[in-house]
Structure formats: C-alpha cells, structure tokens
Amino acid sequence: MHIGIIGGGHVGQALALALRRAGHHPTLLLRDLARGGGDAVAPLAPLPGAEAYILATPHEAAEEALAAVEPGTVPVLDATNPLAMGPDGLDLAFGFDDSGAERIARALPGLRLAKVFNTTGADVMADAARFTPRPVMFAAGDDGYARTIAIQLATDIGFEAVDAGPLRAARLLEAHAMLWIDLAMRRGLGRDFAFALRRAGTP
C-alpha cells in the first residue's frame, strides 16, 4: 500500500521503517510538530495515490495536519494520544468519557478514522517481530474499512492485531497507552517492552 505518514517524529519514522520492511510504500509528509507552540506548519498536500494515512503528530496538531484529507476517501489511522503535563508529570489531557480520536472525528465529520499504533512506544513499533510472543496492537473505529486496514497493517509489521470495536473504545486504548508510558517513564521498565495476549493452553 502507498501510505502517507503525517508527522516525522519518532513514531512516524518507526512506522515508516516497519511498513517499508513489510513491503509497503510509506512517505513521511510532515516533520513532527512541537507540542505547545512552534512555527506554523504549511498545509498538508495530499499524497497522490495514497491508500491510507497515518496521523503521527502530537494530538493537538491533528486537525491542522488533516485539513487537506478529504472526508469519506482513504482511511486515516490515528496514532496520537492526548497528553498533557499534570501535577504528577505527563498524563492524559482527558479520558474515560471522551477520547482524542472521538474529538478528531467530531471536528472532521466524515473522516474514515480508526485508532491504532498508539498503545506502545516507537522502539517497539519499529521492529515488533523481535518480541516473543508477538506484541498486541488494538484497533478501534466506526468505519469498518478503516478498522480493517488498521488491523492489516498492524499484522503486517509484526503485531497480533485485535479488533477493539467502535471508535468509542479509543477511550480505553488511550488509557492503555498511558499505562505503557507510566511503566516506561516512571516505573523503570524503559522503552523496550510490550504487552502481549496469552491464552490458556498456549506455550
């Protein structure tokens, strides 16, 4: 697939590397946007022939970054998390009764949106296949085709991809991402770990 990756930070670069290794054709379209300010970014020019976009900017830059994506066309896969600094450090800006993905969907009606690639770190996404068992990656979305593409791409780059249901489930996925961030940054696990599903009776 020809995939436009919106955002050239750690996540965007990791996904580009992994997708290229899996035989896809990713193109980085924007440098990462500085959280909380920075220079204005030129409007995104649509990628000719794009079959999907991955949003890998800071969450607060999402609407600006997606302004050139025509609603109802190709899927957009939201890899962002709505993070903010709180009294105890980095935390979710909001959650449990709303999600960053749902806010994007409300701001850009008709966007074929799915939530995916947000629940683990860039180092894991760059080479998920090196983990045994395979790390889990969840995908949620109200658009069935966008969710299918999210699951397929996550599988292609080495994850055990799990359908998490409608976009409302992004509230749970963003909280799951915060757990990974907390364990990595505050609890000493570092960035080289991932969650996996283990079923009874499997080795």
From TrEMBL:
InterPro entries: NAD(P)-bd_dom_sf (IPR036291)
SUPFAM superfamilies tied to this protein: NAD(P)-binding Rossmann-fold domains
Source species, domain of life: Bacteria
Name of the protein this chain belongs to: Pyrroline-5-carboxylate reductase catalytic N-terminal domain-containing protein
Organism: Falsiroseomonas stagni DSM 19981
